[in-house]
From TrEMBL:
Residues 79-381 form the Acyl-protein synthetase LuxE domain. GO terms for molecular function: long-chain fatty acid--protein ligase activity. InterPro entries: ANL_N_sf (IPR042099), LuxE (IPR007534). One of its GO terms (biological process) is bioluminescence. The lineage of its organism: Bacteria, Bacillati, Actinomycetota, Actinomycetes, Kitasatosporales. This is Acyl-protein synthetase LuxE domain-containing protein. It comes from Streptomyces netropsis. Gene3D superfamilies: N-terminal domain of ligase-like.
Length: 388
């Protein structure tokens, strides 16, 4: 473990007497530990967090009672909350005075999930990210890097979860320069492909690695623009790293496959495939899911992943497509410990990946149905219309 990074420092649950197993689970240092002991600890931590929210949230108290009755009838036992619930309701299990951070899920338009975090919850989630970065050797306090954030430039009152996350990820290596793909104009944000190209060309001539973080669509549009302009390929310095997040939602007509995208990045920017990773996360469920070097999204030890039938919400076996259901007892501020996402996915056993990780992994298959609700990626994609 890297002892110099403050995000790996200890953090305490709000009430150690009521949440000892939550503390123990979130203190596990191996992000991908798996076995009966970890399963037993996870179940005990879930029991604690369900009791915690049941005592503090009238909404969850009623939900939990109804779930227990359903469980006796032989159906699913987890108290499910759909992510869209948080777009219409603010449900807290802590006093407002204990809110440490307020983030939203969506962009410039559409309904937004309003998520509130106490200090334990957000610091615990950040420590999970730090542990995965540390395991991969991506915490480099003595190595400067140049950052290209394929996301929103900070602006007053900007509370987007994606912007918060991308800026947080800059803490793991000191910044020499930082550039943004979505520039703050003072009246919103605009995609600046020429600024991105100029930054990449400048970074290619520098002597420090580059880290590209954020929406993959903007990088794809940049590569397309470089090719259209007849610009020769670049070679970013050795040790460069690309971490995507946010997906292609709202831009499906221009989405390309992961293999093609990664191949073009290697061809035009010189970054090898194993240094290109996608991620999955949401403001409603801040557990980090980061691709292994085989490009699979493995569940870390602090969460469990299930797939639910789109008709009945019954749990589905490995390989069957349904709603992505994410569970973790880390969150004490909002009863979002068991969230059903709007994403369709399939779950697979760890050994089917072939990498060194043994935890189950999931594949995303897009969003379920058609909705007017817009995620960060949807709002961002709208800024690209006419730019390609």
């Amino acid at each position: 473990m890297n002892p110099m990074n403050p995000h790996l420092a200890p953090v305490d649950v709000p009430d150690p007497a009521l949440l000892p197993r939550v503390q123990e689970l979130c203190d596990l240092t191996d992000p991908y530990a798996v076995g009966p002991a970890e399963d037993e600890l996870f179940a005990a931590a879930m029991a604690e967090i369900n009791a915690w929210h049941g005592e503090r949230s009238p909404f969850f108290h009623r939900l939990h009672e109804a779930t227990e009755e359903t469980a006796r009838a032989g159906a699913f036992t987890a108290p499910l909350v759909h992510a869209n619930f948080f777009k219409r309701h603010e449900v807290l299990s802590i006093p407002r005075d204990d809110v440490h951070l307020h983030l939203t899920s969506s962009g410039t338009t559409g309904q937004k999930s309003q998520m509130f975090f106490d200090e334990w919850t957000i610091r615990s989630a950040q420590r999970m990210v730090a542990r995965i970065f540390d395991r991969n050797g991506w915490i480099t306090p003595d190595q400067e890097v140049n950052y290209l954030l394929s996301s929103y430039q900070p602006a007053p009152d900007l509370k987007l979860g994606t912007s918060f996350t991308d800026n947080y990820l800059c803490d793991f290596a000191p910044a020499r320069q930082v550039e943004y793909a979505l520039r703050n104009t003072g009246n919103g944000h605009e995609f600046d492909p020429f600024g991105v190209i100029a930054a990449l060309r400048r970074y290619a001539d520098d002597d420090v690695p580059v880290r590209i973080l954020g929406f993959p669509a903007f990088i794809w549009f940049t590569l397309e623009r470089m090719r259209a302009m007849g610009l020769p390929p670049l070679t970013l310095p050795e040790g460069s790293l690309i971490l995507f997040g946010g997906g292609w939602k709202g831009n499906a007509d221009q989405q390309i496959g992961k293999d093609e995208l990664y191949g073009r990045i290697t061809e035009q920017l010189g970054v090898p495939s194993e240094r290109i990773r996608d991620t999955f996360g949401s403001v409603e469920h801040c557990i980090p899911y980061i691709e292994c070097d085989h490009h699979r999204l493995h569940a870390p030890v602090w969460s469990r992943v299930f797939i639910r039938s789109t008709r009945t919400l019954e749990p589905l076996p490995y390989g069957e497509r349904g709603y992505l259901h994410l569970v973790s007892p880390y969150i004490t501020s909002v009863p979002a410990q068991s969230v059903v996402m709007g994403d369709l996915a399939t779950l697979h056993p760890g050994e089917e990946c072939g990498c060194e990780l043994n935890t189950p992994w999931f594949t995303l298959h897009g969003r379920a149905g058609v909705s007017r609700n817009k995620s960060c990626a949807v709002a961002a994609a709208e800024l690209m219309k006419g730019m390609s």
